[in-house]
C-alpha cells in the first residue's frame, strides 16, 4: 500500500528523529557490562538483534524463575508453620535453627524477586528499542521513496543514525540479559545403542554452546557399563546459540563420525533436572543420554 508524506513537514520529521535519538537506552539505564562479555562493550562489533528468539528465552526464563519463587515460598510457609509449633513447645535450640533457615529462605526469595524484576526491566527496555527501530526503519524507507531534497537527505541521515543507535542498544540489552540466564549443569549419562554398542568400543562426545566446548572420551566395558573421563560440565546459557553435539567412534588412529545434532536450550529453564535422550544417528540406533540442571 502506497503512503503519501506530503502532509508531514520536515520540521516534524526532525523532531521525531531527535526524540528517537534521546530515547537511547544507555542514556536512561546504567548497564555496566562485565568484562567476561566482550560483545557488550561499546565499540564492539554489533550483531543483528533477534527479537523473536529473545522473546522465547525471556518467557522461558521468567517461567523458570517463577517456579523457583513458588517452590521457595512453599518452603517458607512450611518452615513458618513449624516455627510456630516449636515456639509453643519451647525447644530453644531447634527453634533458633529453624529461625536461621527461615531468614535464609526469605533472603533468597528477595534475591529471586529482584532477579525477576531486573529481567522484566531489561526486556521492557528491549521492546521499546525494538519498536523505535521499527518506526525509524519504516520512516527511512518512506523518505527514501520521496523526492530527494536537502531536507529529506538530512532526515534520512538522522533516521539512519537512529536505526543504528536502536540496533546497538538492542544488542547491548541482549548481552545484559545473558548475564541473568544462570548456569546449565550438564551431566554425562552415557550412550544408548543396544546392539550397536560392544565391549571395547571407544567414543568421543563433543558438546558446544557458542564458544564453550566440552570434549570427553568414553569406553564400553566388558560388563556393558561405560566409563567416561569427565562426567559434568557447566555451560553459560546463550540467547542465540543452540547446543551442538557431535559423536565419533574411535578405532585406533581412525575416527568414524556417528552423528551431529543440535539441541535447543529453551526447555532447560526449569527447577527440575531435565533428562535428555538425543538421537545421534538418523534412525536413532545410537542415542546420547544427558541430564541438565539449571
TrEMBL record:
FAM65 N-terminal domain location: 1-294
Listed Pfam families: PL48
Protein name: RIPR3 protein
Signal peptide: none
UniProt xrefs under InterPro entries: FAM65_N (IPR031780), RIPOR3 (IPR026136)
Membrane-crossing residue ranges in chain numbering: none
PANTHER family: PROTEIN KINASE PKN/PRK1, EFFECTOR, RIPOR FAMILY MEMBER 3
Family: Belongs to the RIPOR family.
Coiled-coil residues: none
Species annotation: Gymnorhina tibicen
Amino acid at each position: 500500500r502506497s503512503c503519501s508524506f506530503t502532509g508531514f513537514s520536515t520540521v516534524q520529521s526532525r523532531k521525531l528523529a531527535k526524540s528517537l535519538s534521546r530515547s537511547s537506552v544507555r542514556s536512561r539505564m546504567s548497564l555496566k557490562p562485565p568484562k567476561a562479555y566482550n560483545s557488550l562493550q561499546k565499540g564492539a562489533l554489533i550483531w543483528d538483534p533477534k527479537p523473536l528468539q529473545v522473546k522465547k528465552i525471556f518467557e522461558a526464563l521468567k517461567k523458570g524463575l517463577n517456579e523457583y519463587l513458588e517452590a521457595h515460598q512453599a518452603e517458607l510457609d512450611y518452615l513458618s508453620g513449624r516455627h510456630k509449633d516449636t515456639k509453643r513447645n519451647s525447644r530453644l535450640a531447634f527453634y533458633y535453627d529453624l529461625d536461621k533457615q527461615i531468614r535464609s529462605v526469605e533472603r533468597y526469595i528477595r534475591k529471586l524477586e529482584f532477579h525477576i524484576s531486573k529481567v522484566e526491566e531489561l526486556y521492557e527496555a528491549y521492546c521499546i528499542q525494538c519498536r523505535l527501530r521499527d518506526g525509524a526503519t519504516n520512516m527511512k524507507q518512506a523518505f527514501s521513496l520521496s523526492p530527494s531534497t536537502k531536507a529529506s537527505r538530512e532526515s534520512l541521515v538522522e533516521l539512519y543514525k537512529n536505526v543504528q543507535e536502536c540496533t546497538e542498544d538492542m544488542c547491548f540489552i541482549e548481552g545484559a540479559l545473558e548475564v541473568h540466564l544462570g548456569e546449565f549443569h550438564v551431566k554425562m549419562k552415557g550412550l544408548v545403542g543396544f546392539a550397536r554398542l560392544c565391549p571395547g568400543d571407544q567414543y568421543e562426545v563433543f558438546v558446544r554452546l557458542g564458544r564453550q566446548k566440552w570434549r570427553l572420551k568414553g569406553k564400553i566395558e566388558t560388563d556393558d557399563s561405560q566409563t567416561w573421563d569427565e562426567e559434568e560440565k557447566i555451560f553459560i546459557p546463550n540467547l542465540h546459540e543452540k547446543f551442538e553435539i557431535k559423536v565419533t567412534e574411535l578405532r585406533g588412529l581412525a575416527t568414524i563420525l556417528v552423528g551431529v545434532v543440535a539441541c535447543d536450550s529453551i526447555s532447560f529453564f526449569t527447577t527440575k533436572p531435565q533428562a535428555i535422550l538425543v538421537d545421534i544417528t538418523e534412525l536413532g540406533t545410537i542415542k546420547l543420554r544427558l541430564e541438565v540442571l539449571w
